[in-house]
């Protein structure tokens, strides 16, 4: 085995011929120059591409030149090693004979985040000499392009300047008469270290991605906190909803006259209510930021959500500040259940309701659909069902003392929901629109309403 990949050197030599290593990117003229005081004749040098490192057969005499030139190409046994895109399966490859490929042996397959079809394969290719120059293009036709930069190559972004990942690893032949040797000539080149370096790197990052994907099945980050999740059972929080937390916290800490509630003007902290709390991310994120005097209640129709929210509250050390229970907030009788869970009225209500119209599902929605229960996504025609139910129960909550005077409703309204319709529903129920807040993508996602009178906005015209 030879390991001197980057320099011209002789792998075999006698008085008649030599087999010399041509490094990748080096021309035949440089190889000939290696023999300063001797005339040598490259044999079938046109078969060898400059970009590929490989073994070159040289004749040292006119006699050997004639003999080697007339040697049948089948006598030359060439094997190339390549790192290619995709998961190579020799059994599924088409007929290779017309391409001059005698066989393909898969040495190693590794997962890759960047490679075609998510895999890289290290292969040995036995190829006939005349077809050596078309090997790269033929591998590309087979759907397994060689890694590298240049024609008929496809780079990995991380390896854009690391050359071509194909080389002639072996050349063997029996010299023809009158150049007979006692045994066949065999020269080999060891695989360059960059092959294994790429494989190790891609495997490492693929493992990291798999670990992240597995983690994403059990955890989600929201407002900088890790929340345990239960895909398909409880709605998984999305960072676009963080604007609800930001808006609620700002409203409660600004103490502006139009957002002052009956409880925030004394020494008691605000009381929060999270409708359909799921993981508890909205309520718990607010409580974490508002400090030790505030507290809250979260309600949901899912037992799994109640269990999960309690788990998240304990993890954030907010178990004594947050209470969660099974309550359907869309039912008129929910008011007395909410009062049972609270010793005084709520000052702010958080709600991210389902609002997807099943007839008009957004593009690229399959991932959300597969990770979330349908009850947390869909809300009938126009996506207004839950907003209508909120508008129905809202006046009863104020009359029953569930919410304080001037209590705020911080509500998510998706971009596909007709906000004028939501505005009309809630203002008819006696609420006033206070403000609109955009999420980090610039979408008007958060709408704030208020029970009681508020002169800041006219209830007649939505913004």
Give your account of this protein's structure.
By secondary structure, this protein is α/β, with parallel strands linked by helices. Residues 363-367 and 453-463 have low confidence and may be disordered. The chain has helices at residues 28-33, 62-69, 135-141, 193-216, 242-254, 281-290, 303-315, 334-340, 366-371, 385-400, 419-428; strands spanning 9-13, 17-22, 41-43, 54-59, 77-85, 101-111, 119-127, 146-147, 153-154, 166-173, 185-188, 219-222, 225-228, 271-275, 295-300, 322-326, 346-351, 403-412, 432-438, 444-450. A hairpin with a 3-residue loop joins β1 (9-13) and β2 (17-22). The relative contact order is 0.09. The protein contains 11 helices and 20 strands. Helix content is 26%, strand content 26%. The strands form 5 sheets. Strands 16-15-14-17-18-20-19 form a 7-stranded mixed beta sheet, sandwiched between helices. A 5-stranded antiparallel beta sheet has the order 6-7-5-10-11. The protein has a 4-stranded antiparallel beta sheet with strand order 1-2-4-3.
Quick structural gist:
The protein has 463 residues and is α/β, with parallel strands linked by helices. It is built from 11 helices and 20 strands. Helix 5 (242-254) packs parallel to helix 6 (281-290) and helix 10 (385-400) runs parallel beside helix 11.
């Amino acid at each position: 085995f030879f390991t001197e990949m980057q320099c011209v050197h002789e792998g075999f030599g006698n008085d008649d011929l030599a087999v010399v290593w041509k490094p990748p990117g080096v021309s035949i003229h440089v190889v000939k120059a290696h023999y300063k005081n001797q005339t040598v004749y490259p044999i079938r040098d046109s078969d060898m591409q400059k970009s590929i490192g490989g073994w070159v057969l040289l004749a040292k005499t006119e006699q050997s030149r004639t003999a080697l030139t007339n040697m049948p190409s089948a006598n030359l046994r060439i094997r190339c090693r390549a790192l290619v895109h995709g998961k190579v399966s020799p059994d599924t490859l088409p007929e290779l004979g017309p391409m001059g490929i005698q066989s393909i042996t898969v040495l190693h397959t590794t997962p890759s985040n960047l490679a075609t079809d998510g895999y890289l394969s290290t292969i040995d290719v036995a190829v006939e000499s005349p077809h050596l120059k078309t090997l790269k293009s033929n591998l590309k036709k087979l759907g397994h392009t060689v890694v590298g930069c240049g024609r008929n190559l496809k780079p990995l972004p991380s390896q854009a300047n690391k050359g071509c990942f194909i080389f002639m690893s072996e050349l063997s032949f029996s010299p023809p008469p009158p150049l007979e040797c006692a045994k066949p000539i065999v020269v080999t080149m060891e695989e360059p270290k960059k092959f294994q370096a790429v494989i190790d790197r891609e495997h490492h990052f693929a493992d990291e991605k798999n670990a992240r994907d597995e983690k994403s099945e059990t955890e989600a980050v929201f407002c900088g906190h890790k929340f345990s999740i239960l895909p398909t059972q409880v709605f998984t929080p999305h960072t676009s909803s963080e604007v609800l937390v930001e808006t609620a916290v700002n409203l409660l800490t600004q103490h502006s006259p139009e957002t002052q509630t009956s409880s925030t003007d004394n020494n008691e902290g605000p009381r929060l209510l999270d409708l359909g709390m799921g993981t508890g991310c909205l309520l718990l994120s607010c409580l974490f930021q508002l400090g030790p005097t505030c507290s809250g209640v979260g309600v949901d129709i899912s037992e799994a959500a109640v269990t999960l929210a309690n788990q998240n509250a304990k993890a954030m050390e907010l178990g004594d500040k947050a209470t969660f229970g099974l309550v359907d907030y869309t039912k008129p009788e929910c008011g007395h259940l909410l009062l049972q869970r609270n010793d005084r009225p709520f000052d702010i209500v958080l709600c991210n309701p389902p609002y997807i119209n099943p007839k008009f599902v957004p593009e690229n929605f399959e991932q959300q659909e597969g990770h979330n229960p349908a009850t947390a996504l869909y809300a009938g025609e126009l996506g207004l069902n839950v907003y209508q139910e909120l508008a129905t129960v809202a006046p009863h909550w104020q009359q029953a003392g569930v919410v304080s005077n001037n209590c705020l409703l911080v509500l998510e309204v998706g971009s596909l929901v007709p906000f004028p319709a939501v505005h009309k529903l809630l203002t008819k129920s006696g609420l006033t629109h206070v403000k609109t807040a955009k999420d980090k993508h610039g979408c008007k996602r958060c709408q704030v309403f208020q029970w009681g009178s508020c002169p800041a906005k006219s209830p007649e015209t939505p913004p």
